[in-house]
Amino acid sequence: YEEVLRQDPDFPEAHTKLSYILHRLRDAEEALREAKAALARTPGNAEAHRNAGIALADLRKFDAAALDFGEALRIKPDYELVHYDLGILLHDKGDLAGSIAEYRKALALDPKHLNAHYNLANALEEKGEFDSAIREFREAKRLEPERFEVRINLGHALMSRNMYAEAVREYRELEAMAPDSEVCHVC
Predict the structure, then answer these.
(1) Considering 49, 71, 93, which residue would you say is the last residue of a domain?
(2) CA-to-CA distance for 74 and 101, rounded, in angstroms?
């Protein structure tokens, strides 16, 4: 995308895509700069607002991030990824109820969003809603049975409900998947 921007610095799609790549490379300042460059050229760009929100959240500027996420949802109300991102933001701010609501909105739009199930389960567990958390961990496990952190957290949630036989079974399956993992042996 940098080459495209050298040839055409006003190409908003390249700024938008580069912004997300920079976020993935953990360069929040540059990601924000590229998102703002895209928005300067296309103010109604929901994806660029999302990318700006992600970069601002990475910079721990939660209120500003929430504004960009809100603008993305104003432009595109069914933007599932923004509901998911907003769930992360609200969880980081300590707003479990808001976080849970946003993860559920994301899942209403995409029931197969593994990370939304996983993050929802973690938020529910943190809130003390263990039965609901277990349901979400199980759904995440169904979607991706090899995902280690889903399985370990499911085991922890089962333990919290005194479902020891199921928890032990989960941990034994994990140990079979990753016999060298110290995490399984600690459990």
Answers:
(1) 71
(2) 17
Domain residues for the domain of 145 are: 110-187
Question: Which contiguous run of DSSP H or E holds residue 2?
Answer: helix 2-7
| AA identity, residue 63 | D
Q: Does pTM top 0.85 for this prediction? A: yes
Confidence of residue 179 (pLDDT cuts 50, 70, 90): confident
Alpha-carbon span 49 to 38, nearest angstrom: 9
Q: Is residue 67 a part of any domain in this protein?
A: yes
User: 10-57 pLDDT, tens per residue?
Assistant: 656 787 888 899 888 999 999 999 999 999 999 999 999 999 999 999
Whether residue 101 is contained in a domain is answered as no
Nearest Cα to Cα of residue 137 among 108, 115, 159, 104:
115
Tokens of 71: 């603008």
In a domain, 183, yes or no: yes
Whether 89 is covered by a domain: the verdict is no
Mean pLDDT for 121-147 is: 97
